[in-house]
Amino acid sequence: MTVRAVVHYVLSIVIISIYSARVCPFFGELLFGKRVILFAVFFGIALVLRKGLIELGILGDKYITRIRRQVALDFGLYLLSGIGIALYNYFAYEFPPGSGLKVIMGSITLGFYASIDLGLETERTINTEAGKTGDSIHISDNFVKLTTKIIIVAATSMLFLIIIILLIISRNAGIFSHHEYTSPLLIKKILFEILFVVIMILIENINLIISHSKNMNMFFDSETKVLLAVANGDLSRKVTVSTDDEFGLIAAYSNKMIEKLKERTDDLLKTRDVTILSLASLAETRDNETGAHVLRTQRYVKALAVYLKCNPRFSEYLTDDTIDLLYKSAPLHDIGKVGIRDNILLKPGKLTDEEFKDMKMHPVYGRDALLKSKVALGSNSFLDTAVEIAHCHHEKWDGTGYPEGLKGDNIPIPGRLMAVADVYDALITKRVYKDAFSHGEAIKIIINGRGTHFDPDIVDALLAIENEILDIAREHSDMQNH
């Protein structure tokens, strides 16, 4: 039982107690307190009956059914209350049928407004429930348009107003017919009664407008929040479809649009990922490193980034989306090697100073190749990350790295992460010009480079997740990938 329902029924008792005396001389003969008790008994029974029927599940489980049955239940209870009062007065006080019809008319007028308002309240409740469960209402093909609903409510309100005013006039018609002169006091009394009815119906209409406005605001808030999230790249959100009308249709089409957008985005992301792997594979065909190196390093980078997202120095940058971009972009760190001559890239031994000078150009080649794509595609967070990884993964914390000699925090975070991952993997991997170091030996070398070669915090992160790094190295070892 909601507070709103109790308020409606209590106010109805007061209003109809006043109204009945204005339209029916027989009720006018009863004391106000007696009228209140009479109406309180019947409407109180209706309120208790309402609570019991709802608990028994008369409203049903389907959302639209609940709203319609809620409206029908309250309107029906108001009608039955009016009929009950009319029959009681007919048998107990021998009031004429006309008196009973006037009471029934007042009951269905108040029931009309109460049932619609409580139906709107149920609509709000359903919206909250659907928002929590993720359920949606199925929009019917023949729903009643909002404009039609407004016309029906407005026309019905005018009809009730006219009928009740006529009832007030008819109650006093006998007085006018028996008096050649009607006192100004009597006219004022009649005008006051009409004014009371007009004000009551005006208040009921204002209440319906406010109640419906709450539902509209609820929809617009939901729609706005979801569309704002979608505009910011979150395609997992949905608008709650909780009404069988134009607003429900807008919500349903918004969700359909988001689903289509998500499908196309997923296709683009798959295309992007395939392109990355293709480019990385192209680099592998010209390099003496294995494809397992690419798999390991991208997993090292992700593991380090996940750990560092709680570090104040990195937390603002390392969002979940950025970490995903780092993971996807890492395979392109050596894409620039496709521009290195075979006699240098595939040399089975140590490079000369001149050859190493040429080799040090591969970050520049990688950057330039990706920047050309960026020019064609426009600003793109994925390409920005890929450029930073390809260009800066050989920079050193103390500024002695290449190709730009960047120092400290001037080195982009993706480049700093990739530097640790790339060097660690190079150390534990056998190459034609060296044997593989053990995990422990590789860790010692990286610790020695803390604050000179590598960002100290990233080295500390590597030590903190050392077991996870070792598991990655074992899971994707070269032996398993041959």
TrEMBL record:
The organism's place on the tree of life at top rank: Bacteria
Keyword annotations of the record: Hydrolase, Kinase, Membrane, Transferase, Transmembrane, Transmembrane helix
Alphabetical list of InterPro entries matching this protein: Cyclic_di-GMP/3'3'-cGAMP_PDE, HAMP_dom, HD/PDEase_dom, HD_GYP_dom, MASE10
Pfam families reported for this sequence: HD_5 (PF13487), MASE10 (PF20970)
GO molecular function, one term: kinase activity
SUPFAM superfamilies referenced in this protein's UniProt entry, alphabetically: HD-domain/PDEase-like (SSF109604)
Organism, as annotated: Candidatus Magnetominusculus xianensis
UniProt-recorded name of the protein: Histidine kinase
